[in-house]
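Query structure, 764 tokens:
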């Protein structure tokens, strides 16, 4: 027994334990005797006594001895400290065997102590946890049935054995022993997750709690309570693996997760969800408004309605899909596929909606591009169908028109006998009407060529004054009939223009015809030519005193087939293609088209074209002949012509009749072939001076017939003129590529055919 003051100095000691006499001299402090921590606990001012275990080293340096410490606070300060002596240890093995708790020591029934002991063993054996007690040497002094079963033995066989005597996994035994030693050293409770390989080879996981256990005698043991958590660890690992797979899937698929509790309004938006819109996780709050405000205004109503319908109506199912646009941080719009699943209560009402967002912008772009390609393919197909239709219609219209105009021309020239003035006037009306119909057909074909990108220019040096006068001559007669005066003025500064003469004349004729058509009787029209840009450009202004065009209609009049006077009561004929062609021809010449019009006061259309610099080899085109003049080769004698044989290949009786009569009247011998095979045969037999080849014929078309003739050395050098109603983009090129020397589009003037034939004869 020791008496101390408040500072812990030992004031007195008494007792029969001589072993403490040298260790506890008076005047020393309790901390020097026991250590700081036990001294502090024993001197603490508490209402009751304090009890501690103290491990005192032996003088020989052997294993420390455990002592019992007890303290009682004294009135006025200080404490009474009692140190109890452990019983002397004799032979360690017999004592250890007596400490065993085995089933062999159970006494017969009637012994109260034995019955209580048996009952406690039954309780411990019924516990599925592994319960055991180990001494300092690591031997089991108690083991319940659950522990023995894990080792594959019985409790009595396991008691008084070390784990390494019944277990072979060294790494596991090392962990068990390390924990035991830490408990002995610290006298503290430890908890550890342990891996244990059972007798049958299966691996289990255990949650182990180990704590110091002091026997009544003062001896120290380790009490272990181990719970089998193998299934829990397996499920945790499975859950971990599942979560990891889900996380990888979400990351790989760039899925933005969301969760909405309908009743509470609580919303969760994952970091990936926000990243899809270009935000960091902290930049957007997890609210319903965040999602709602990001929706495209055109999609918001539809998307919200779908979600509400699925929440309220269980018959729709639990899963839904929405595709919509969402605004990103930089203001762009991304296409999102929103997949949702509705969680319902017992009444079928949706109480929670969860799902994910998938960015499908690239997919939508691919779909739109694919749809655009399909639309373009459909448009190309329609364009081909339109071109084929126009080609067929052109052929069907030109073929009979060729016969009409040809017969009228032949009759007017007296091929079939003398005609009276009245008959000549009727034939002129037929010719004019046919030419008008031909101009309409040509306009339609020019529009088709322009749309197909096949409208090309044949540029040359064009005399400005000459082409203007040609155009005016063609409209003056009609203007005279309407009593419309035609004016012309030019500053004369630009004499030549680098342009397509035929297209330039077509521009002037379309504009002059429009001016004359819409100008009432007694009005005036005119053509003015002025230089611009110091002679680098020239402006052609066609003006009239007609009704004029409203400002809002100016752009419309240049669209194909558009006519401002399009009702049933319209007064002016036309297809509505003239101005559309004018604009396209001007664009091809890299020019400008200006319109100045006022309702009630007339219109002025000005075409501004660049003059262009002629190349070194370009000179003004010689225009010594006109459509009515005879060519230079007209000097060929009639006797020479009579010896010329022409093969006329055409399956149309109407076309061959008038052309045959016309050529015979001009001294040619004409052989007629009704198909391509007959044309090839005749050419081989008679070796004609020239071949007039139609293209659309039975048995063998004109293109193949030309190729056959060019492949045969006998007929390879015979001039061939393709005379066909095919006038669509590319038809001329196809004929020339097949081997034709010239291409004439029906309907064609008979005199023009004769001129081309004489030109080839002159070359021969």
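Result returned for the query:
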């Amino acid at each position: 027994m020791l008496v101390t003051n408040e500072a812990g100095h030992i004031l007195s000691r008494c007792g029969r334990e001589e072993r403490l006499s040298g260790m506890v001299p008076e005047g020393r402090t309790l901390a020097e005797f026991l250590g700081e921590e036990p001294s502090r606990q024993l001197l603490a001012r508490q209402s009751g006594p304090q009890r501690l275990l103290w491990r005192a080293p032996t003088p020989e340096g052997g294993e420390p001895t455990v002592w019992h410490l007890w303290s009682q606070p004294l009135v006025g300060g200080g404490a009474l400290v009692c140190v109890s002596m452990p019983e002397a240890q004799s032979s360690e093995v017999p004592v250890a065997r007596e400490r065993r708790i085995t089933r062999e020591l159970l006494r017969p029934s009637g012994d109260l102590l034995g019955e209580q002991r048996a009952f406690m063993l039954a309780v411990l054996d019924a516990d599925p946890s592994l319960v055991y007690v180990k001494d300092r040497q690591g031997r089991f002094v108690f083991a319940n049935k659950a522990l023995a079963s894990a080792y594959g033995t019985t409790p009595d066989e396991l008691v008084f054995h070390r784990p390494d005597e019944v277990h072979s996994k060294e790494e596991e035994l090392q962990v068990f022993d390390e924990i035991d030693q830490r408990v002995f050293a610290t006298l503290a409770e430890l908890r550890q997750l342990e891996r244990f390989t059972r007798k049958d080879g299966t691996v289990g996981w255990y949650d182990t709690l180990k704590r110091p256990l002091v026997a009544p005698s003062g001896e120290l043991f380790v009490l272990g309570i181990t719970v089998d958590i193998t299934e829990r660890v397996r499920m945790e690992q499975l859950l971990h693996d599942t979560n990891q797979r889900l996380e990888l899937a979400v990351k790989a698929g760039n899925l933005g997760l969301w969760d909405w509790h309908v009743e509470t309004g609580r919303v969760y938006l994952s970091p990936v969800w926000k990243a899809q819109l270009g935000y960091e996780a902290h930049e957007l709050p997890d609210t319903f408004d965040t999602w709602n405000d990001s929706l495209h205004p055109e999609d918001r109503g539809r998307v919200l309605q779908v979600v509400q319908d699925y929440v309220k109506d269980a018959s729709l199912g639990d899963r839904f899909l929405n595709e919509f646009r969402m605004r990103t941080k930089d203001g762009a719009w991304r296409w999102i596929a929103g997949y949702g699943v509705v969680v319902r209560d017992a009444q079928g009402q949706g109480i929670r909606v969860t799902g994910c967002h998938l960015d499908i912008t690239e997919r939508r772009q691919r779909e739109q591009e694919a749809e655009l390609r399909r639309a373009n393919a459909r448009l190309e197909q329609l364009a081909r169908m339109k071109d084929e239709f126009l080609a067929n219609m052109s052929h069907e219209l030109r073929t009979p028109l060729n016969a009409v105009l040809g017969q009228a021309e032949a009759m007017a020239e007296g091929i079939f006998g003398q005609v009276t003035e009245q008959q000549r006037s009727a034939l002129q009306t037929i010719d004019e009407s046919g030419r008008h119909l031909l101009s309409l057909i040509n306009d339609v074909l020019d529009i088709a060529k322009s749309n197909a990108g096949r409208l090309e220019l044949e540029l040359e040096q064009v005399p400005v004054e000459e082409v203007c006068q040609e155009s005016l001559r063609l409209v003056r007669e009609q203007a005279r009939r309407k009593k419309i005066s035609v004016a012309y003025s030019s500053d004369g500064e630009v004499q030549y223009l680098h342009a397509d003469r035929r297209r330039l004349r077509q521009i002037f004729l379309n504009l002059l015809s429009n001016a004359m058509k819409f100008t009432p009787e007694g009005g005036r029209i005119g053509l003015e030519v002025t230089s611009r840009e110091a002679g680098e450009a020239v402006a052609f202004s066609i003006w009239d005193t007609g009704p004029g065009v409203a400002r809002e209609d100016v752009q419309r009049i240049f669209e194909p087939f558009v006519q401002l006077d399009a009702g049933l009561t319209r007064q002016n004929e036309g297809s509505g293609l003239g101005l559309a062609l004018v604009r396209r021809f001007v664009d091809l010449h890299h020019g400008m088209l200006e319109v100045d019009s006022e309702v009630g006061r007339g219109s002025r259309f000005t075409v501004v074209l660049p003059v262009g610099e002629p190349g070194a080899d370009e000179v003004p085109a010689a225009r010594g002949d006109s459509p009515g003049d005879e060519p230079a080769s007209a000097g060929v004698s009639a006797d020479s012509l009579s010896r010329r044989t022409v093969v006329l290949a055409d399956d149309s009786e109407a076309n061959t009749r008038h052309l045959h009569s016309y050529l015979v009247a001009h001294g040619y011998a004409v052989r007629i072939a009704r198909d391509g095979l007959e044309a090839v045969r005749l050419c081989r037999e008679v070796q004609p001076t020239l071949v007039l080849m139609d293209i659309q014929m039975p048995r063998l078309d004109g293109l193949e017939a030309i190729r056959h003739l060019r492949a045969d050395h006998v007929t390879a050098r015979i001039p061939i003129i393709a005379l066909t109603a095919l006038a669509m983009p590319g038809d001329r090129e196809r004929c020339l590529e097949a081997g034709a020397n010239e291409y004439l589009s029906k309907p064609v003037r008979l005199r023009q055919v004769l001129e081309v034939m004489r030109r080839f004869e002159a070359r021969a």
